[in-house]
Amino acid sequence: MSEEISFRTKVVHASLGIDEATGALNTPLHLSSTFHQPDFDNYHAFDYARSGNPTRQAVEEAIAKLENGTHGFAFATGMAAISAALLTLSQGDHFIISGDVYGGTFRLTEQVLPRYGITHTFVDMGDLDAVAAAFQENTKLVYVETPSNPLMRVTDIEAVARLAKEHDCLTFVDNTFLTPVLQRPLDLGADLVVHSATKFLGGHSDILAGLVVTNNEALAKQVYFMQNSTGGVLGVQDCWLLLRGLKTLAVRMNVGTESAQRVAEFLEADERVAAVFYPGLSSHPDYALQQAQADAAGAVLSFDLGSEEAARQFVNHVHLPVFSVSLGAVESILSYPARMSHAAIPEAERLKLGITPGLLRFSVGLEDVDDIIQDFKQALAYTVERSAR
After folding, report:
1. Which of 103, 264, 287, 323 has the most CB within a 10 Å radius?
2. Residues 10, 50, 272, 312: which is the catalytic one?
3. Would the pTM of this model clear 0.70, i.e. be above it?
4. Sites of the modification N6-(pyridoxal phosphate)lysine (predicted)?
5. Do 197 and 303 have their domain in common?
6. Which residues, 6+ apart, have CB-to-CB distance to 294 below 8 Å?
7. Is 262 a residue of the active site?
8. Which of left, alpha, beta for 105 (phi over 0: left; psi -120 to 50: alpha)?
């Protein structure tokens, strides 16, 4: 078959593991912690499951194909993947990181890595002059989250990667929100991509998983060393569930993205909503950049109802979304970042970043979008404080 196939087709076949022995369409579950070796001098590719497992290898190969990378690594959680990536740094190293990253990444950066002598500078990645000014003699990498969580700010991956290369640094990108269906950072000059595969890649709120992809051989060796040394690998059964989720990734992302666009447009038109954050809106300051570097804006948006009380009333009266931590599932998920995903960030810092008491994050699932909008309409009627723009 020609290599010129659509990405939707590529997604299905990257995760299709036809078993050579039986013809089974799904990758076998290799439930073994250790592997018999032929003899004293000859060894199989697999010896101990922490170091490698055939089922996990299928996941790692699949995500590498989808991100146009050469090496993939599967971890027990998204934070395990991010930790392994950032622990390629050493004592005395410095890195630059997006100012409004996920709360777990913020906690790792602020409270864990400094204990190992690894320093950082938070910057507004939308300000390339600020990024350029943040480089130090010991800077080794730039860590980007785009679109950012939860304010959906967009970073110019190509421009940041170019700046990093000028300083002999690497660029890491968290691609959780868009997945390789909509954005492929390695093609834009990034050196490594991380995912919380718990989210869209898994897609069913039934596993925790993290993935790392790179096309840099030396970096791949460092990531594998950390994976094997620290042992936070993805379990075999979760690998199988992740492969199952990947098969429908393109369809789920496309439906969720189309629905998110309509929900964002509805919210933007409602005077009770103080602000809507979604880079698919032409009013978003990074709309043109998002259009240039990604295929669409994704299935996550945030909106501000002006106060905690208004947000509380909305959550109490909406019916279809679950009110929960996480995102990227077949069911729509409504979250309150100030007390959920970003609770680890001190309040003063949250407010400085724009994570206000009235901010809600919405991950659009596969429900009929007309039902979602109707549900939002009735819930907005209960918001007790209305913010005029």
Report:
1. 264
2. 50
3. yes
4. 199
5. no
6. 178, 182, 183
7. no
8. alpha
